[in-house]
Design a protein that fits this description.
By secondary structure, the protein is α+β, with helices and mostly antiparallel strands. The protein has helices spanning about 10-25, 85-95, 105-115, 125, 140-145, 150-160, 165-170, 190-210, 220-230, 240-250; strands at about 35-40, 45-50, 65-70, 75, 100-105, 175, 180-185.
């Protein structure tokens, strides 16, 4: 489908992206307008994203901006898209399995980003979603900040993950140094949920690191962490009732 030859509306995608954006303040992930969610329609070659600086209280589906995946131009919308739009576009182009991207400035995840420390795997809650630490990027260079800053922000995330789609799927998030978390998933909804988990495990990690000592609390056993990740992800996953519901329907 061409983004220039057909009338665009993307009703379902707009509604999902709107709902995901509205959950950012509900989940306590943003102050003021600090955050955004997007969702992609790869067949149409576009993604839908929150407009820049519009408050969540005022946000409607019609306010969302449709952006070309190929070149970043605005295809539809009466507002400017989020200033983070080019970071989203970079991630979509690097990882074809991604269907949604979320960026927030949530307090505890930002604390790790500002300290330039990955969020460590300290227990099973983390391992349920992230198959390893949530990594942190290198600082952007002066040249990267001076030109195409937002796209280069995406590039440092891609470089951090070595462009590996499997790694991006197993660890669906990263911290941009001195900045904050970006998370992603198969849909805009999943990307937002991964942002909620990222903030939760960052808060748990900070409390755990404050309480424990290396002598009293060694690293958790890898077999335990693996068990928690694989029961929710991959071919042998059994968490939840989606499969059971589908079987009943048949």
């Amino acid at each position: 489908m061409s983004v220039v030859s057909e009338s665009l509306s993307f009703g379902d995608l707009r509604r999902e992206v709107l709902a995901a954006n509205l959950r950012i303040p509900e989940a306590g992930l943003a102050t003021l307008t600090w955050g955004n969610v997007s969702g992609v329609d790869r067949d149409a070659g576009v993604f839908v994203i929150k407009p820049s600086g519009v408050s969540y209280a005022d946000l409607t589906a019609e306010d969302l901006v449709v952006v070309s995946l190929a070149d970043g131009r605005v295809v539809e919308g009466h507002f400017k898209p989020s200033t983070d739009t080019e970071t989203h576009r970079c991630l979509y182009r690097a990882f074809p399995h991604i269907g949604g991207v979320t960026h927030t400035h949530s307090t505890h995840a930002v604390a790790f980003a500002q300290a330039r420390r990955p969020i460590p795997v300290l227990g099973t809650t983390h391992a349920d979603t992230f198959n390893g630490p949530v990594p942190v990027t290198e600082d952007l260079t002066a040249e990267q900040c001076a030109r195409d800053y937002e796209y280069n922000t995406g590039q440092v995330i891609v470089a951090l993950l070595e462009g590996d789609p499997q790694r991006a799927e197993e660890v669906p998030g990263a911290l941009v140094s001195r900045h904050g978390p970006f998370t992603w998933g198969a849909t805009a909804t999943t990307a937002l949920e991964n942002a909620i988990v990222c903030e939760a495990v960052a808060e748990m990690a900070l409390h755990t690191l404050a309480l424990r000592s290396p002598v009293d609390a060694p690293e958790p056993p890898q077999h335990l962490l693996d068990r928690h990740f694989t029961r929710k992800h991959g071919p042998d996953a059994y968490y939840g009732n989606t499969a059971a519901v589908a079987a009943t329907a048949r």
